[in-house]
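User: As part of a screening pipeline, I want to sanity-check one entry by hand. Below is the sequence and the SMILES for NAP. Please return the complex as structure tokens so I can compare it with the automated output.
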Amino acid sequence: MIISIIVAIAKNGVIGKASGEMSWHVKEEFQHFKDTTLGYPIIMGRKTFETLGKPLKGRLNIVVSKNKYYKIPFNDVVVKLSIEDAIDHCKALGPEKIFIIGGGEIYKQAITFVDEMIITFMKFEAEGDVKFPAIIDNEWKIEKIKDHELFEIYRYVRRN
Ligand SMILES: NC(=O)c1ccc[n+]([C@@H]2O[C@H](COP(=O)([O-])OP(=O)(O)OC[C@H]3O[C@@H](n4cnc5c(N)ncnc54)[C@H](OP(=O)(O)O)[C@@H]3O)[C@@H](O)[C@H]2O)c1
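Assistant: Here is the complex for your manual check:
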């Protein structure tokens, strides 16, 4: 099972606002996110889920929170107490791939062990205080997969 991060990062490293708001809305980038993740389990932090407000369709939504009393009013959303528990839950279902979809706190932990990252680099700076962790380029094989007027998409595969 491939464990992949998917993220969109502004030129200044920003991925969102601490208030939970997204820093930009680019329809084609959102479409890329949807096309890439559809059909696969997605793991996200509690704050990112609250920003979305509801589960993303066509994907098993797993939310992580350290609060054992945290409840979500959607029957089809799985809540786990750790990222490891969320990954183990997916492994038992046998998908070929799973996606870690943010936000900042979850990326910071997951970047240390994921196999792959699908990163959209936006061609503009954005307002916000949540940033993606530093990427050490020589730990990854990097391949450009798309060029668009407003962004470029790269696949990072961890070197063994
Ligand atoms: N640009 C992008 O691609 C992208 C993608 C996703 C999100 N975002 C942005 O990112 C921002 C949110 O990021 P964030 O860093 O504030 O929050 P976050 O990572 O979405 O969620 C943090 C919460 O996750 C839980 N958590 C963290 N580590 C955990 C662990 N090891 N085990 C169990 N639970 C854990 C905790 O919930 P409890 O407090 O309940 O314990 C924590 O408060 C928003 O602005 C959003 O728009 C951007």
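Points to compare against the pipeline: The chain has a mean pLDDT of 97. The pocket of NAP is lined by residues 7-8, 15-17, 20, 22, 44-48, 51, 64-67, 70, 81-83, 101-106, 109, 130 (CB under 6 Å).
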